[in-house]
TrEMBL record:
FAD dependent oxidoreductase domain residues: 6-376
Co-factor requirement: FAD
Organism (species): Allomuricauda ruestringensis (strain DSM 13258 / CIP 107369 / LMG 19739 / B1)
A Gene Ontology cellular-component term: cytoplasm
Family: Belongs to the DadA oxidoreductase family.
Name recorded for this polypeptide: FAD dependent oxidoreductase
Amino acid sequence: MDNKYDAVIVGGGVLGTFHAYHALELGLKVCLVEKDAYPKGATTQNFGQVVPSGMNTKWQQFGRESLRIYKGIQSRFDISIRQNGTVYLASNEEEEQLLVELGAINSSNGYESQLLTRHQCLEKYSGLRTDYVTAGLFFPEEVTVEPRTMIHRLQKYLVTQRGLDIKFDFPVISCESTGENVTVQSTKDEEVFGSKVVICNGSDFKNLYPAMFSSSELEVSKLQMMQTKPQGNFKLRGSILTGWSIRRYEAFHECPSYSQIKENEPKGSPQKKWGVHILFKQAADGSVILGDSHQYADAGKIEDLGYDLDMDIDNFMIEEAKKVIDLPTYQIQKRWYGIYSQCKNSDLFQKTIDDNIHIVTGIGGKGMTGSAGFSKKHIATIFNKQKINL
Protein backbone atom coordinates (compact mmCIF):
# COMPACT_ATOMS: atom_id res chain seq x y z
CA MET A 1 0.00 0.00 0.00
CA ASP A 2 1.54 3.28 -1.14
CA ASN A 3 -0.31 5.20 1.59
CA LYS A 4 0.78 2.93 4.46
CA TYR A 5 3.63 4.30 6.60
CA ASP A 6 5.53 3.46 9.74
CA ALA A 7 5.03 7.05 10.92
CA VAL A 8 2.54 9.73 9.91
CA ILE A 9 3.43 13.18 11.26
CA VAL A 10 0.63 15.75 11.40
CA GLY A 11 1.87 19.33 11.17
CA GLY A 12 4.56 20.74 8.87
CA GLY A 13 6.14 23.24 11.26
CA VAL A 14 9.57 22.87 12.82
CA LEU A 15 8.37 20.44 15.52
CA GLY A 16 6.59 18.13 13.06
CA THR A 17 9.33 18.32 10.43
CA PHE A 18 12.03 17.29 12.89
CA HIS A 19 9.87 14.41 14.12
CA ALA A 20 9.78 13.31 10.48
CA TYR A 21 13.54 13.80 10.16
CA HIS A 22 14.33 11.57 13.13
CA ALA A 23 11.85 8.90 12.04
CA LEU A 24 13.66 8.82 8.69
CA GLU A 25 16.96 8.55 10.58
CA LEU A 26 15.64 5.32 12.10
CA GLY A 27 15.04 3.93 8.61
CA LEU A 28 11.26 4.26 8.80
CA LYS A 29 8.82 5.03 6.00
CA VAL A 30 7.43 8.47 6.86
CA CYS A 31 4.65 10.76 5.65
CA LEU A 32 4.29 14.37 6.79
CA VAL A 33 0.86 15.96 6.30
CA GLU A 34 0.29 19.72 6.49
CA LYS A 35 -3.10 21.45 6.46
CA ASP A 36 -1.94 24.43 4.36
CA ALA A 37 -0.31 24.74 0.95
CA TYR A 38 2.98 25.39 2.77
CA PRO A 39 4.10 25.97 6.38
CA LYS A 40 3.15 29.48 7.50
CA GLY A 41 2.56 29.39 11.25
CA ALA A 42 4.86 30.19 14.17
CA THR A 43 7.78 28.41 12.47
CA THR A 44 7.91 31.12 9.79
CA GLN A 45 6.94 34.05 12.03
CA ASN A 46 9.58 33.85 14.74
CA PHE A 47 12.81 35.72 15.34
CA GLY A 48 15.08 33.14 13.75
CA GLN A 49 17.65 32.33 16.40
CA VAL A 50 18.85 29.05 17.94
CA VAL A 51 19.93 29.95 21.48
CA PRO A 52 20.34 27.02 23.90
CA SER A 53 22.05 29.54 26.18
CA GLY A 54 18.64 30.98 27.06
CA MET A 55 17.15 27.65 28.18
CA ASN A 56 17.11 25.94 31.55
CA THR A 57 19.51 23.04 32.09
CA LYS A 58 17.08 20.37 30.86
CA TRP A 59 16.15 22.11 27.64
CA GLN A 60 19.66 23.36 27.00
CA GLN A 61 20.61 19.72 26.39
CA PHE A 62 17.91 19.49 23.71
CA GLY A 63 19.06 22.82 22.29
CA ARG A 64 22.68 21.76 22.11
CA GLU A 65 21.64 18.59 20.28
CA SER A 66 19.61 20.82 17.94
CA LEU A 67 22.74 22.81 17.15
CA ARG A 68 24.58 19.62 16.17
CA ILE A 69 21.65 18.56 13.98
CA TYR A 70 21.28 21.95 12.28
CA LYS A 71 25.00 22.15 11.54
CA GLY A 72 25.10 18.58 10.27
CA ILE A 73 22.28 19.24 7.81
CA GLN A 74 23.79 22.59 6.78
CA SER A 75 27.07 20.83 5.91
CA ARG A 76 25.13 18.77 3.33
CA PHE A 77 22.34 21.13 2.24
CA ASP A 78 21.91 24.89 2.68
CA ILE A 79 19.02 25.51 5.07
CA SER A 80 20.14 29.11 5.90
CA ILE A 81 22.14 28.36 9.07
CA ARG A 82 24.75 30.99 9.97
CA GLN A 83 27.09 30.52 12.94
CA ASN A 84 27.90 33.96 14.32
CA GLY A 85 27.20 33.30 17.97
CA THR A 86 24.94 34.94 20.52
CA VAL A 87 25.77 37.73 22.94
CA TYR A 88 23.88 38.91 26.02
CA LEU A 89 24.61 42.55 26.81
CA ALA A 90 24.38 43.80 30.40
CA SER A 91 23.40 47.41 30.99
CA ASN A 92 24.09 47.60 34.74
CA GLU A 93 25.75 45.82 37.66
CA GLU A 94 22.77 43.53 38.37
CA GLU A 95 22.65 42.21 34.81
CA GLU A 96 26.42 41.88 34.77
CA GLN A 97 26.23 39.75 37.93
CA LEU A 98 23.74 37.44 36.22
CA LEU A 99 26.10 37.07 33.26
CA VAL A 100 28.95 36.06 35.57
CA GLU A 101 26.71 33.49 37.28
CA LEU A 102 25.38 32.08 34.00
CA GLY A 103 28.93 31.82 32.67
CA ALA A 104 29.85 29.72 35.70
CA ILE A 105 26.79 27.48 35.26
CA ASN A 106 27.65 26.87 31.61
CA SER A 107 31.27 26.17 32.48
CA SER A 108 30.12 23.40 34.80
CA ASN A 109 27.77 22.11 32.06
CA GLY A 110 30.56 22.02 29.47
CA TYR A 111 28.88 24.63 27.25
CA GLU A 112 31.33 27.20 25.92
CA SER A 113 30.79 30.84 26.76
CA GLN A 114 33.08 33.87 27.03
CA LEU A 115 32.70 36.85 29.33
CA LEU A 116 33.36 40.07 27.44
CA THR A 117 34.44 43.37 28.93
CA ARG A 118 32.66 46.57 28.02
CA HIS A 119 35.55 47.44 25.69
CA GLN A 120 35.43 44.04 23.97
CA CYS A 121 31.68 44.40 23.38
CA LEU A 122 32.14 47.84 21.84
CA GLU A 123 34.90 46.54 19.57
CA LYS A 124 32.94 43.47 18.47
CA TYR A 125 29.52 45.01 17.79
CA SER A 126 29.20 47.99 15.48
CA GLY A 127 26.91 50.76 16.62
CA LEU A 128 26.68 49.55 20.23
CA ARG A 129 26.13 52.56 22.46
CA THR A 130 28.81 53.35 25.01
CA ASP A 131 26.20 54.55 27.50
CA TYR A 132 24.34 51.22 27.41
CA VAL A 133 26.74 48.30 27.73
CA THR A 134 28.76 47.31 30.82
CA ALA A 135 29.68 43.70 29.89
CA GLY A 136 28.69 40.78 27.68
CA LEU A 137 28.46 37.00 27.67
CA PHE A 138 29.17 35.42 24.27
CA PHE A 139 28.17 31.92 23.10
CA PRO A 140 30.23 31.15 19.97
CA GLU A 141 28.47 27.91 18.94
CA GLU A 142 24.99 29.40 18.49
CA VAL A 143 23.40 30.10 15.13
CA THR A 144 20.75 32.11 13.37
CA VAL A 145 18.28 30.95 10.72
CA GLU A 146 16.06 32.64 8.19
CA PRO A 147 12.67 31.39 9.47
CA ARG A 148 10.74 32.04 6.26
CA THR A 149 13.37 30.06 4.34
CA MET A 150 14.65 27.34 6.65
CA ILE A 151 11.57 25.13 6.94
CA HIS A 152 11.03 25.01 3.15
CA ARG A 153 14.67 24.11 2.49
CA LEU A 154 14.66 21.52 5.25
CA GLN A 155 11.58 19.85 3.81
CA LYS A 156 13.08 19.95 0.30
CA TYR A 157 16.18 18.20 1.67
CA LEU A 158 14.09 15.53 3.37
CA VAL A 159 12.03 14.89 0.24
CA THR A 160 14.84 14.91 -2.33
CA GLN A 161 17.58 13.23 -0.31
CA ARG A 162 15.94 11.29 2.50
CA GLY A 163 12.75 9.90 0.94
CA LEU A 164 10.12 11.80 2.94
CA ASP A 165 6.57 11.92 1.54
CA ILE A 166 4.83 15.27 2.16
CA LYS A 167 1.16 15.93 1.52
CA PHE A 168 0.21 19.61 1.61
CA ASP A 169 -3.40 20.88 1.65
CA PHE A 170 -4.23 17.96 3.93
CA PRO A 171 -6.40 19.27 6.81
CA VAL A 172 -6.95 16.30 9.10
CA ILE A 173 -10.55 15.70 10.21
CA SER A 174 -10.21 12.18 11.58
CA CYS A 175 -7.50 10.16 13.27
CA GLU A 176 -8.73 6.72 14.34
CA SER A 177 -7.03 3.53 15.46
CA THR A 178 -8.19 0.63 13.28
CA GLY A 179 -6.53 -2.55 14.42
CA GLU A 180 -2.83 -2.46 13.60
CA ASN A 181 -2.97 0.94 11.91
CA VAL A 182 -4.16 4.47 12.51
CA THR A 183 -6.27 5.95 9.72
CA VAL A 184 -5.66 9.65 9.08
CA GLN A 185 -8.33 11.27 6.88
CA SER A 186 -8.40 14.72 5.30
CA THR A 187 -11.29 17.02 4.45
CA LYS A 188 -10.95 15.81 0.82
CA ASP A 189 -11.49 12.16 1.85
CA GLU A 190 -7.82 11.36 1.28
CA GLU A 191 -6.43 8.77 3.65
CA VAL A 192 -3.03 7.70 4.88
CA PHE A 193 -2.32 4.92 7.34
CA GLY A 194 0.35 4.86 9.98
CA SER A 195 1.61 2.35 12.49
CA LYS A 196 2.22 5.41 14.65
CA VAL A 197 0.81 8.92 14.27
CA VAL A 198 2.36 11.99 15.88
CA ILE A 199 0.20 15.14 15.99
CA CYS A 200 2.45 18.21 16.26
CA ASN A 201 0.01 20.88 15.12
CA GLY A 202 -2.05 22.75 17.70
CA SER A 203 -4.84 23.52 15.23
CA ASP A 204 -5.27 19.88 14.24
CA PHE A 205 -5.18 18.84 17.88
CA LYS A 206 -7.92 21.37 18.67
CA ASN A 207 -10.15 20.13 15.84
CA LEU A 208 -9.57 16.41 16.41
CA TYR A 209 -9.89 16.35 20.20
CA PRO A 210 -11.84 19.47 21.24
CA ALA A 211 -12.71 18.26 24.75
CA MET A 212 -9.09 17.39 25.49
CA PHE A 213 -7.98 20.72 24.04
CA SER A 214 -10.45 22.75 26.11
CA SER A 215 -9.36 21.02 29.33
CA SER A 216 -5.65 21.49 28.62
CA GLU A 217 -3.53 24.23 30.18
CA LEU A 218 -2.49 25.58 26.81
CA GLU A 219 -2.19 29.30 26.31
CA VAL A 220 -1.11 31.38 23.35
CA SER A 221 1.41 34.17 23.12
CA LYS A 222 1.35 36.97 20.56
CA LEU A 223 4.76 38.40 19.65
CA GLN A 224 5.29 41.57 17.61
CA MET A 225 8.43 41.92 15.48
CA MET A 226 9.77 44.34 12.89
CA GLN A 227 12.29 44.41 10.07
CA THR A 228 14.24 47.53 9.12
CA LYS A 229 15.25 48.49 5.66
CA PRO A 230 18.67 47.11 4.57
CA GLN A 231 21.51 48.74 6.50
CA GLY A 232 24.01 49.24 3.66
CA ASN A 233 27.53 48.19 4.64
CA PHE A 234 26.67 47.96 8.34
CA LYS A 235 27.29 44.48 9.79
CA LEU A 236 25.81 43.10 13.00
CA ARG A 237 27.09 39.64 13.84
CA GLY A 238 24.87 36.94 15.33
CA SER A 239 22.05 37.36 17.81
CA ILE A 240 22.12 40.39 20.10
CA LEU A 241 20.15 39.99 23.33
CA THR A 242 19.95 42.79 25.85
CA GLY A 243 19.45 43.38 29.55
CA TRP A 244 15.73 42.70 29.42
CA SER A 245 16.47 39.29 27.87
CA ILE A 246 18.84 38.60 30.75
CA ARG A 247 15.98 39.37 33.12
CA ARG A 248 13.53 37.17 31.21
CA TYR A 249 15.13 34.04 29.77
CA GLU A 250 14.74 30.77 31.67
CA ALA A 251 18.49 30.11 31.89
CA PHE A 252 18.94 33.07 34.22
CA HIS A 253 16.27 31.76 36.59
CA GLU A 254 18.92 29.26 37.75
CA CYS A 255 21.36 32.00 38.73
CA PRO A 256 21.71 32.56 42.52
CA SER A 257 21.03 36.31 42.28
CA TYR A 258 18.04 36.08 39.95
CA SER A 259 15.17 36.09 42.47
CA GLN A 260 16.43 39.11 44.37
CA ILE A 261 17.17 41.06 41.21
CA LYS A 262 13.66 40.38 39.86
CA GLU A 263 12.20 41.45 43.19
CA ASN A 264 13.90 44.83 42.84
CA GLU A 265 12.39 45.57 39.43
CA PRO A 266 9.83 48.36 39.11
CA LYS A 267 6.25 47.26 38.58
CA GLY A 268 3.81 48.58 36.00
CA SER A 269 6.27 49.66 33.30
CA PRO A 270 5.39 49.36 29.58
CA GLN A 271 8.13 46.76 29.34
CA LYS A 272 6.36 44.65 31.98
CA LYS A 273 2.89 45.30 30.58
CA TRP A 274 3.80 44.15 27.08
CA GLY A 275 6.45 41.56 27.96
CA VAL A 276 9.10 43.32 25.89
CA HIS A 277 12.73 42.31 25.64
CA ILE A 278 14.88 43.92 22.97
CA LEU A 279 16.60 41.65 20.43
CA PHE A 280 18.54 42.33 17.25
CA LYS A 281 19.43 39.98 14.38
CA GLN A 282 20.68 40.95 10.95
CA ALA A 283 18.90 39.15 8.12
CA ALA A 284 20.58 37.87 4.97
CA ASP A 285 19.59 41.00 3.00
CA GLY A 286 21.30 43.33 5.49
CA SER A 287 18.11 44.44 7.21
CA VAL A 288 17.81 44.07 10.99
CA ILE A 289 15.05 42.18 12.80
CA LEU A 290 13.86 43.92 15.97
CA GLY A 291 11.63 42.58 18.71
CA ASP A 292 9.84 41.42 20.56
CA SER A 293 6.78 41.58 22.82
CA HIS A 294 4.63 38.96 24.58
CA GLN A 295 0.89 39.10 25.25
CA TYR A 296 -0.99 36.07 26.56
CA ALA A 297 -4.45 34.50 26.41
CA ASP A 298 -5.96 31.06 27.00
CA ALA A 299 -5.62 28.95 23.85
CA GLY A 300 -9.38 28.77 23.46
CA LYS A 301 -9.65 32.57 23.52
CA ILE A 302 -7.04 33.57 20.97
CA GLU A 303 -9.34 36.34 19.75
CA ASP A 304 -8.70 38.18 23.02
CA LEU A 305 -5.26 39.08 21.65
CA GLY A 306 -6.74 40.86 18.65
CA TYR A 307 -5.77 40.54 15.03
CA ASP A 308 -4.00 43.87 14.59
CA LEU A 309 -0.56 45.20 15.39
CA ASP A 310 -0.40 47.52 18.39
CA MET A 311 1.64 50.49 17.17
CA ASP A 312 2.24 51.69 20.73
CA ILE A 313 4.19 48.47 21.33
CA ASP A 314 6.18 48.82 18.11
CA ASN A 315 7.03 52.46 18.81
CA PHE A 316 8.10 51.60 22.35
CA MET A 317 10.40 48.83 21.09
CA ILE A 318 12.00 51.12 18.50
CA GLU A 319 12.73 53.82 21.07
CA GLU A 320 14.24 51.28 23.46
CA ALA A 321 16.30 49.68 20.68
CA LYS A 322 17.78 53.07 19.84
CA LYS A 323 19.16 53.22 23.40
CA VAL A 324 21.18 50.06 22.69
CA ILE A 325 22.50 50.23 19.11
CA ASP A 326 22.86 53.13 16.68
CA LEU A 327 21.74 51.60 13.38
CA PRO A 328 22.24 53.55 10.14
CA THR A 329 18.44 53.51 9.77
CA TYR A 330 15.49 52.59 11.94
CA GLN A 331 13.09 52.88 9.01
CA ILE A 332 10.79 49.86 9.13
CA GLN A 333 9.94 47.97 5.95
CA LYS A 334 7.90 45.16 7.50
CA ARG A 335 5.92 44.52 10.69
CA TRP A 336 4.24 41.28 11.78
CA TYR A 337 3.22 39.20 14.71
CA GLY A 338 3.58 35.51 15.47
CA ILE A 339 1.33 33.33 17.60
CA TYR A 340 2.63 30.30 19.42
CA SER A 341 1.09 27.98 21.99
CA GLN A 342 2.66 26.91 25.26
CA CYS A 343 1.69 25.26 28.52
CA LYS A 344 1.16 27.37 31.59
CA ASN A 345 2.77 24.97 34.05
CA SER A 346 4.76 22.43 32.04
CA ASP A 347 7.34 22.27 29.25
CA LEU A 348 4.87 21.22 26.56
CA PHE A 349 1.63 19.26 26.06
CA GLN A 350 1.94 15.49 25.54
CA LYS A 351 -0.79 12.84 25.41
CA THR A 352 -0.98 9.31 24.02
CA ILE A 353 -4.27 7.88 22.70
CA ASP A 354 -4.79 4.15 22.02
CA ASP A 355 -1.02 3.54 22.27
CA ASN A 356 -0.36 4.65 18.69
CA ILE A 357 -1.57 8.28 18.50
CA HIS A 358 0.85 10.69 20.14
CA ILE A 359 0.00 14.38 20.61
CA VAL A 360 2.84 16.80 21.27
CA THR A 361 2.30 20.54 21.05
CA GLY A 362 2.62 23.75 23.04
CA ILE A 363 6.41 23.90 22.81
CA GLY A 364 6.14 27.70 22.83
CA GLY A 365 9.20 29.86 22.27
CA LYS A 366 11.46 26.81 22.54
CA GLY A 367 10.44 25.55 19.10
CA MET A 368 13.20 26.78 16.80
CA THR A 369 15.91 26.02 19.35
CA GLY A 370 14.63 22.86 21.00
CA SER A 371 12.53 20.96 18.44
CA ALA A 372 15.35 19.15 16.65
CA GLY A 373 16.86 17.79 19.86
CA PHE A 374 13.58 17.04 21.62
CA SER A 375 12.13 15.26 18.57
CA LYS A 376 15.12 12.91 18.46
CA LYS A 377 14.38 11.64 21.96
CA HIS A 378 10.60 11.61 21.46
CA ILE A 379 10.73 9.57 18.24
CA ALA A 380 13.17 7.13 19.85
CA THR A 381 10.76 6.68 22.76
CA ILE A 382 7.70 6.21 20.53
CA PHE A 383 9.43 3.55 18.43
CA ASN A 384 11.25 1.98 21.39
CA LYS A 385 14.68 2.73 19.95
CA GLN A 386 16.39 3.78 23.16
CA LYS A 387 19.70 2.37 21.99
CA ILE A 388 20.25 5.27 19.59
CA ASN A 389 22.69 7.92 20.77
CA LEU A 390 20.82 10.75 22.50
